[in-house]
Specification:
about 20% strand; alpha/beta; elongated; about 425 residues
Length: about 425
């Protein structure tokens, strides 16, 4: 079984805020000491940090749940509870993080040490010292901590490489990578020798360097799942230049030009934007019989079927076995990289918008529905958050929650929907009677 894993689905849960405390100052010579309960501590965030030492998402194969610690409860003497430490989760460079529910991209982590908070911890609940007023100098009210953010995430690894090698199986991509870099990919005289992406660093004679990725061989129909399918094509999305390796000896009985068209068709079917990347055609196995004649025919077909106003891609005849033409190919690749900008992987429609904490009139504070048992059901982020932060062990807190509901217009809305005195109302698993 391959130890390379480039996709994973995980659950993350930030820590809840600590509950606020109800306490009173009771000292012999301090009459009417008043409230003295402190606030709860902040819950821990779940933070992704890029670690350049990681190469795959294998760490997420068996560990799929990540939960940060909750903040400590508030204490007497007005002391705050201790805030929880953030949970640090290390991910490899090139990891894209998506929200599993919406499919939106949260972040693209490419720089070593880059950090991103994927789930925010809840704030601590306020202690009763915060609710003291001239009208109510000794309140028995405190808040529960705010729940931490919880979400399901999709992780997708796209290896960081400047150049991608594409082509049919057995055209010599792995051999080429092993000759121009120090990488040691598996090489064999059979199809699909390479079943995971291999990376290597190239250094040219002029001193320039770039990363090359050898991707598992494509075949016709890969975009429909034939062979290894397109499961590794995601790794070419980060590349800026594509080296299209073609077996000019036609040792397997295929037409080199038809191979060229078939691979480009699969790239286009997977992602049309891959065709924006400049290609260099690598005519490999030029040490074999008939290769020179096949290359001549290939150039004729390419010129005949190309737009007369378009610039033909560069063609470099090489032999990985004899190392013929490699220096010229690498210099041309480095030159093309210098003038090729980074390609934008995601447009604005794919990215999740940053959190907005202002007032938004379009988002209703609550929604009302009717259950099968005729119970009225209240829902909505704002209302549910208010409910979770209410300490129902204290009568004053319950009365405060009822006033808040009334202020939000819940009572009036239920009345307009036909709710009558004594009807059951449910928030989550909590039920109470509607009083008209």
């Amino acid at each position: 079984m391959s130890m390379f894993l480039d996709t994973a689905k995980i659950q993350v849960k930030a820590g809840n805020g600590g509950d606020g405390m109800v306490a009173f100052r009771r000292e012999k010579y301090v009459p009417n000491g008043g409230p003295w309960g402190g606030d709860g501590g902040r819950g821990g965030n779940v933070v992704f940090v890029v670690d350049e030492g990681l190469r795959t998402l294998m760490d997420f194969r068996y560990n799929r749940h990540f939960k940060a610690q909750s903040g400590e409860k508030g204490m007497t003497k007005g002391m705050h509870g201790r805030g929880a430490e953030d949970l640090i989760v290390r991910v490899p460079q090139g990891t894209t993080v998506r929200d599993a529910e919406t499919g939106k991209v949260l972040t693209d982590l490419v720089e070593n040490g880059q950090e991103f908070i994927v789930a925010r911890g809840g704030r601590g609940g306020r202690g009763n010292i915060r609710f003291a007023t001239p009208k109510n100098p000794a309140p028995e009210i405190s808040e529960n901590g705010e729940p931490g953010q919880e979400r399901e995430l999709l992780l997708e690894l796209k290896v960081l490489a400047d150049v991608g090698l594409v082509g049919f199986p057995s055209v010599g991509k792995s051999t080429l990578l092993s000759v121009i870099t120090a990488a040691k990919p598996k090489i064999g005289a059979y199809h699909f020798t390479t079943i995971v992406p291999n990376l290597g660093m190239v250094r040219t004679h002029s001193g320039e360097s770039f990363a090359v990725a050898d991707l598992p061989g494509l075949i016709e129909g890969a975009s429909q799942g034939v062979g290894l399918g397109t499961q590794f094509l995601r790794h070419i999305e980060r590349t800026r230049v594509i080296l299209h390796v073609i077996d000019m000896s036609a040792s397997e009985g295929r037409d080199p030009y038809e191979d060229y068209l078939a691979i480009n068709k699969e790239l286009e079917s997977y992602n049309l934007r891959l065709m924006e990347r400049p290609q260099i055609i690598v005519a490999n196995k030029m040490d074999m019989p008939d290769s020179a004649e096949n290359l001549k025919i290939f150039k004729e077909k390419l010129a005949a079927n190309y737009d007369e106003f378009a610039e033909l891609p560069q063609i470099f005849p090489i032999s990985s076995l004899t190392k013929q033409g490699l220096a010229t190919l690498l210099d041309a690749t480095a030159e093309l990289l210098d003038k090729t900008p980074e390609f934008l992987l995601y447009d604005e429609s794919e990215m999740e918008e940053e959190a907005y904490y202002g007032f938004d009139e379009e988002v209703p504070a609550f929604e009302i529905s009717r259950d099968d048992d005729a119970t009225w059901v209240l829902s909505g982020d704002k209302l549910e958050k208010l409910f979770s932060m209410t300490n129902f062990d204290r009568d004053e807190a319950v009365m405060k929650f009822a006033r808040q509901l009334r202020g939000m217009g819940v009572d009036e809305a239920l009345r307009d929907r036909g709710a009558k005195d004594g009807d059951l109302v449910r928030i989550g698993k909590f039920e109470f009677e509607f009083v008209d």
